[in-house]
Amino acid sequence: MMSFSSKVKEELSRQFSPARHCQIAEIAAIISLCGRIQISEREQYRLKIHTENIAVARKYFTLLKKTFNIKADISIRQGIEKHKSRTYTVCISAHEDALRVLQAAKLLDRYGNVEENMSLVQNVVIMRNCCKRAFIRGAFLVAGSVSDPEKFYHFEIACTEYAKAFQLQGLILTFGLDAKIVRRKKYFVVYIKEGSQIVDILNVMEAPLALMELENIRIVKEMRGSVNRQVNCETANINKTVSAAVRQMEDIALIKDILGFDKLPDNLREIAELRLLRPEATLKELGETLDPPVGKSGVNHRLRKLSGMAEKLRGG
């Protein structure tokens, strides 16, 4: 069965921005997080990305075709051991094509040297809001994961360098979301923990189907939690009522054995006899049974007087 994270990536792999500048932003994110630039002795460029997710390979291949009309080469490598998954490599072998992509994605400086601009303010690739969305989408596709919302809420994108994680965090923060960075082994992980914020980041990346699925799960979980809290509260109230009734019965039985009811004032004798007769009744129900009826506080006052009397008897 496909995991929730795989469903999100599958949906995002089929989401294409109509604007060329957004397509370039998404390509820039993919190259930034899982790309390799090879330079030959004759200074000829080759551009590769490696991924274990076929949806990512398909998306990158299609983006190159749509944006630059480049037909990249795809190769598949199967791991030797059974549990090892396939690795997909998408390669731009032609120097001119690799150069065009790198220049458009602003991964080359004006002298032709490989250099990545991590600035949020001066980087023209991610100036527009729509391009920021596309960049985050590309980054999640190649290096992100989201937990099964039935279990817990966690969204993350792993970066190999702090500067990349900081850039990504800054992009997510521009949408009002509380992204944090944590060091995990050799990675710097940008993450979001709150359920409603994960819904918002899915909206930012334009994954409406996954968003609706997560919202439905959240609603059911919140309803379950609300019902459980209500049941727990009612159970606690019942336990308190039962415990109080048991104490009252013990106090009244003690008074009856030592003093007898004849020595009690009429109002206390009346409530003592009624409590013994109806051990399961609430204070309100006891008060309504009296003639004339007495309010809940009045019944409580009489029972407290009986309790005080019992305590004095216990003390000798």
The count of β-strands is 8
By DSSP (H or I, 4+ residues per run), the number of helices equals 11
Tell the overall outline: rod-shaped
Side-by-side strand order of the widest sheet: 1-2-4-3
CATH architecture identity of the largest domain: Roll
| Helix-strand category | alpha+beta
Topology as a string of helices (H) and strands (E): HHEEHEEHHEEHEEHHHHH
Sketch the major β-sheet: 4 strands, antiparallel
Which stretches are poorly predicted, pLDDT < 50 over at least 5 residues?
A: none
From the alpha-carbon coordinates, what is the Rg to the nearest angstrom? 35 Å
Strand content: 5-15%
By CATH, the topology of the largest domain is: Endonuclease I-creI
Could you tell me how far the N terminus lies from the C terminus, measured between alpha carbons in angstroms? Answer: 73 Å
| Fraction of residues in H or I helices | 55-70%
The CATH superfamily of the largest domain is identified as Homing endonucleases
Name a few traits of the molecule.
316 residues, alpha+beta, Endonuclease I-creI, 2 domains, four-stranded antiparallel sheet, rod-shaped
Sum this structure up briefly:
With 316 residues, the protein is an alpha+beta fold.
Show the helix and strand layout.
Elements (H helix, E strand, L loop, with lengths): L3 H10 L6 H15 E5 L5 E7 L2 H15 L4 E5 L9 E6 L2 H10 L24 H15 E3 L8 E5 L2 H12 L6 E5 L2 E6 L2 H10 L3 H51 L7 H12 L5 H7 L6 H19 L2
Antiparallel strand pairs: 1-2, 2-4, 3-4, 5-6, 6-8, 7-8
